[in-house]
Amino acid sequence: MYAWIFRHLPGPLWLRVLESLVLLGLVLVALVTVVFPWASPFFPWTASTVEAVTVPVPAWPWGGGAGSGPLGG
Known about the structure:
Elements: H1 2-8, H2 13-39
């Protein structure tokens, strides 16, 4: 099938290689934007069993803001 497509592309070899890469890119874009989002609910690994936990970040023990850490700034 790929050989048939390659033989029917117009132009010299370098142009057919370029056209093949463009076609491959278009197929990948179509898969990522249309097929994969449509099929994602059917994938078993998309169901998450871990909930997000929010943990507050403690302040620096020596106070201050930007540039007051152990390495300065």
